[in-house]
Amino acid sequence: MGDCCKSCMTRIPYATLIATVMCLIGVGIFCGTMYRGTSFAIIMLDQVFHLRLMWIEAVQMIFVVIGASMAALGLMILFVGFLATGATRYKVYRAWGSRVGGRISCAVFMGITYILKIVWILILCFLTVVTFIFTVFWNMCANPNVQSHKNCIDLTQFYFMFPAGVAQQDMNICETKVKAFCKDGVEKCEIMFILATVSCLL
C-alpha cells in the first residue's frame, strides 16, 4: 500500500496542480465579479445618464469567455502534466511517435498559453484604468456636501469620456440621482472591479 501511494505521489505534477488551482480560483472570481460589475455599470449608465451602450455587454461576454477559456486551458495543461510526469511517460508513452506527439502538444499549449497571457495582461491594464476611474468617482461621492445634497457631482470635466449625445445636465448629478450614481452604481462597481483586478493577478 505504501509503495502504491508513493508511486501515485511521484506522478502528480505539483507545480502544474498549484498553478491550475490558482488559475481556477482567479478565473472564478474574475468571471463572477466582472459580470456583476458590468451589470451594475449598465444599470447606472441607464438610470443616471440615460445611456444604453451595447458594446459594454459585448465586452462583458468577451471577458467571461476569455476567462472560461483560460480555465479550460488550465485543466488541459494539468492533464498533459499528469501524462508527462513520473513513470507514466516511460511505461505508457515510451514509443518514439508518442514522445514526438507529446512534445508537439506541449509546444502548442505553450504557444496558446503565451497568447492568452498577453490577452490577460491587456485585460489587467483595462481593469486598472476602469478601477482608477471608479475610485475617482467614489472619492467625489465621499464628499460630505454631496452626501448631504448641498452640492452636486459635476462630471462635465470628464466630458471626453461620454458619447457625444449626452446632455450637459445629465453630467451634473444632483439630489435623487446621487444615490443611483454613488450607492447603487459606483460603490458596487468599485468593489467588483477591485476584486476582478486582483483576480487577474492570480
UniProtKB/TrEMBL annotation:
Stored InterPro entries: Myelin_PLP
Biological processes annotated in GO: neuron projection development
Transmembrane segments: 12-35, 55-84, 105-138
The UniProt record lists the keyword RNA-binding: no
Coiled coil regions, renumbered to chain: none
Keyword Acyltransferase: no
Keywords on record: Membrane, Transmembrane, Transmembrane helix
A GO CC term attached to the entry: plasma membrane
Protein name: Neuronal membrane glycoprotein M6-b
Species name: Culex pipiens (House mosquito)
Lineage: Eukaryota, Metazoa, Ecdysozoa, Arthropoda, Hexapoda
